[in-house]
Amino acid sequence: MAKDEQDQNGFLLRLLLGSLADAPPRVQERMLETIPTTPLSLAFYTVTLVVICGATVYVTRTPWAWGWLAVSAALVAWRALLPLWKRPHNPLKPLLGVMLPSGLAMISFGFGCAMCLATGDVALSTMALSGQMGVLAGIATRWAVVPRIAIAVMVISVLPPVVVLVAAGGANILAALSLVFAGVVIASFIFQNRAALHAAISSGELLRRKAQTDHLTGLANRAELMQRMAEACAELPAPDGRVRGRGFAVLYIDLDGFKAVNDSHGHAAGDEILQRVADALRRVAGPDELVARIGGDEFVALLRDADALTARGVADEIIAAIAREHRLADGRSVRIGCSVGVCTAPEQGREPEVLLARADAALYEVKAQGKGYTGMWRALSDA
Question: Do the domain assignments include residue 215?
Fold first, then answer.
């Protein structure tokens, strides 16, 4: 991702989430998913608008009522047609595209309700205030994750009815105060709901990470690897070349001499070596690449946008980083090595299981021929 796009994402996240913009990316994503973007939420709001705006037009038959209906219809149409437009690569922009017409519709609803109150018609006033309370409840429950925007929309939406009620004087002022009080309560609910959402999602994310992480090394486990490989395969270029995508390489790594360490120095020493190897793999592969431990002394690195030449270079670096003498915490020294099998996608496969099996086959050939070097699946299969 380009630096300008990263800066833009950071600004949008800060605008939407406030202090929670510093939360882990997966937590941010899950929290933003709580904002209603489904056809069901749109249908519910559309029915509410049609009933109240339609009743207002029928009762008053005034230009402002027709205008309110037209503006509301335009905003609903804008929101409904969004899924048909080309979706930008930045996932935040579609969300903002949904929130903008929705927020404007809520604000328009507030002004329309104010005009209904100004007519003095009991039925219209009751419908307006009921609808306004429904809007406030929706903001509190469905927009709680974006409190700054939620409260801004709420204030702008509630202010016109409050002004009309205060201007009417008498007991209407009490109604205005009730509406203001409801707004204050809703604002407190927004922050309470956001805190509850954050706690629940963070706990769920922690459990998910534990389920997909190797507890000894902190690397991804097999389940996480297969999920990430499936996602990477879904982004591969189309076979006919009509759809562009991203290729990747699979490096299957197996330690040489590790069993001797366990047998001679004990499992504690073996665990320490595995942690050292995990650190070396992270360092060589880089922070943006996935490294997983899938067996006792077997590891896999997933390199995005890597061709065969790049993958071989990284594999050779891994061998150089691991194949040396390692001094244990108790002062003893042990020496291990490793062998690496490599295959690339989409040239050598398009399915996670196939790619992993071919990288493993390349590794098997390396181990059979002497260990300690890199084997490419294509070269071995053609031999």
Answer: no
pTM for the model stands at 0.62
Residue (of 365, 313, 315) closest to 340 by Cα position? 315
Element (H, E) at 268: helix 267-285
CA 270 to each of CA 1, 156, 335, 366: distance values in angstroms, whole numbers, following the listed order: 39, 64, 12, 23
Which of 171, 181, 183, 184 minimizes the C-alpha distance to 125?
171
- Active-site residue numbers? 297
Residue 374 lies in domain: 222-382
What are the pLDDT digits (tens) for 257-307?
999 998 888 989 999 999 999 999 999 999 889 999 999 999 999 999 999
Do 263 and 321 sit in the same domain of this protein? Answer: yes
Give the alpha-carbon dihedral of 281, 283, 288, 291, to 10 degrees: 10
Q: Which residues contact 372 (CB under 8 A, 6 or more apart)?
A: 256, 319, 323, 337, 338, 339
The C-alpha R_g of the chain, in whole angstroms, comes to 30
How far apart, in whole angstroms, are the C-alpha atoms of residue 229 and residue 292? 11
Of residues 123, 189, 183, 138, the one with CA closest to residue 156: 183
pLDDT at 87: 52
| 163 and 239 both lie in a single domain | no
Q: Based on the domain organization, do 71 and 170 belong to the same domain? A: yes
Given the structure tokens 């604000």, which residue do they identify? Answer: 107
Nearest to 146 by CA among 97, 190, 186: 190
